[in-house]
Design a protein that fits this description.
single chain, about 240 residues, mainly alpha, globular
Length: about 240
Amino acid sequence: MAENEFFRLWVYLSASPLLGLTATLIAYQSAYALYRYAGNNPLLNPVAISVLFLIALLMLTDTPYTEYFEGAQFVHFLLGPATVALAVPLYKQLNKLRTLWLPLVTALLVGVAFAGLSAVGIAMALGASKATLLSLAPKSVTAPIAMGVAEKIGGLPSLTAALVVITGIVGAVIGTKVFDLMRIKDDSIRGFSLGLTSHGIGTARAFQQSEEMGAFSGLAMALSAFTTAIILPWLLSLLCIID
C-alpha cells in the first residue's frame, strides 16, 4: 500500500513544476540533517551535499535540468529577498561598522583585486586559454554578478557559474579552519573575509557561526559584487588581458 502511494506521489510530482521545488527542499533538509549529525563538520557542507543529492536524482531519473528548474526557480526567486534581509543583522552592527569602515574598505579593494588577478595569474602560468582566464576572474562574487561580468569581458558565463559554486563551497569548508589556524578570533573580521572570498555560500556558513559574523559576511558579499563589476574589467584591461 505504501509503495502504491509513493508511486502515485512520484507520478504527480514528476508531471508538475513542484518536482524541482520538492526535490530541492528534501535534498537540503537531508544534507543539513547529515551536517548536524556529524557535529557541524564543514566537510559535510549542506550546500555541497544537497547539490550532489540533486545531481544523482536528475541522473537516475533522467530528468532534464530545465524541467527541474521549473520548480526550483521558486527558491531562486527567494534569493533576492533573502539578500535584502541581510541588512537587518548588519544594522545591529552599525556602531562597530562605523569604527571599522576604513580597514574594511581597504580589505575590500585589496581582496577584490587579489581574488581576481591571483586566479588569472595562476591559470595563465598553467597555460589556460584566454576564455578560461576571463571566466576565472570574477569567481569570488555572487553568481548573477559574476556571470554578467564574465560575459561582458569575454568569458564563458556557464563556466563562471560552476567556478563560483566551487569557490563558495571550498571557502565555506576550509574558511573557519584557516581563521583558527591564523588565530583570528574577531567575528567581524572572520565574516568580512569569508563573504569577500566565498559570497553567498560563505555567508550561509558565517551565519551558522554567529549573527555578527554573518552580518559582516553579507556586507562583504554585496560590496565585493559591486566593486568587482566596476574595477575588475579595468584591472584586466590595464594588464592587457582584455582589449
